[in-house]
Specification:
With 226 residues, the protein is an alpha/beta fold. The protein has helices spanning 10-22, 33-42, 59-68, 84-92, 105-118, 152-163, 171-178, 188-201, and strands at residues 2-6, 26-30, 47-51, 75-79, 97-100, 126-129, 132-135, 140-143, 146-148, 210-213, 217-220. It has 2 domains: 2-117, Rossmann fold (3-Layer(aba) Sandwich), CATH 3.40.50.2300; 126-220, Orthogonal Bundle (Arc Repressor Mutant, subunit A), CATH 1.10.10. Strand 7 and strand 8 (140-143) form a beta hairpin. The structure holds calcium ion.
Length: 226
């Protein structure tokens, strides 16, 4: 577990980073808001311990920037002032918990462990294979960086193929998953949709990703390199 500590007070910072290392965490310590923001945005941290009063940028601004960049890393902020407004403000701005200084180290550890347990691995917002990427949030598809426009059904079809890439999906399964209907006999609609999808994502690119498995269905896979 990697922890970022943003704390300008030398004694507190050293104490935290040493304590967390001894508790088995990988702890990085930075001592001002600008470095803190940079590290939080670019590092792969499981949790940020963020002091509020910092040189450069204060903790509020660092927190706002972390959240507006879409980072959902848990943030525990440290406030020297036992003021209700501070705590409310921190939580409103997207902090997950706070501690009022001075605090017992055991209390910090307990709070951190709670946050880390809560830190459910969020579902990834994009699916990819080779150079094809499907962005679930923005509902965009690109291949080799080129934007590809899909209809809603084509998007749903590609999403299904991506989620189950490498598996042979029968036409009947695709029909029921994408069209939400049972096409007992007429799976022509699937063939047509696959053909249109291929024209958009495969025709102008290499390698081809959608493969027909005769008599069985379709599979999305990236051919292994020779
Ligand atoms: Ca401080």
């Amino acid at each position: 577990m990697k922890i970022l500590i943003v704390e300008d007070e030398h004694k507190t910072g050293d104490y935290l980073s040493q304590g967390l290392s001894e508790a088995g965490f990988v702890a990085d310590l930075v001592r001002d808001g600008i470095e803190g923001r940079h590290a939080a945005l670019n590092g792969d941290y499981d949790l940020v311990v963020l002091d509020v009063m910092l040189p450069g940028l204060d903790g509020w601004q660092v927190l706002r920037d972390i959240r507006s960049a879409g980072k959902d890393v848990p943030v525990l902020f440290l406030t020297a002032r036992d003021r209700v407004e501070d705590r409310v403000r921190g939580l409103e701005q997207g902090a997950d918990d706070y501690l009022v200084k001075p605090f017992a180290f055991s209390e910090l550890l307990a709070r951190m462990r709670t946050l880390l347990r809560r830190g459910k691995p969020r579902e990834s917002t994009s699916l990819r294979i080779a150079d094809l990427e499907l962005d679930l949030l923005r509902r965009r598809v690109t291949r080799s960086g080129r934007r590809i426009d899909l209809t809603a059904k084509e998007f749903a079809l590609l999403e299904l193929l991506l989620r189950r890439q490498g598996e042979i999906l029968p036409r009947s399964l695709i029909a029921s998953q994408v069209w939400d209907m049972n096409f007992d006999s007429d799976t022509n609609v699937v063939e047509v949709a696959i053909r249109r999808l291929r024209a958009k994502i495969d025709d102008d690119f290499e390698p081809k990703l959608v493969r027909t498995v005769r008599g069985m269905g379709y599979v999305l896979e990236a051919p292994e390199l020779p």
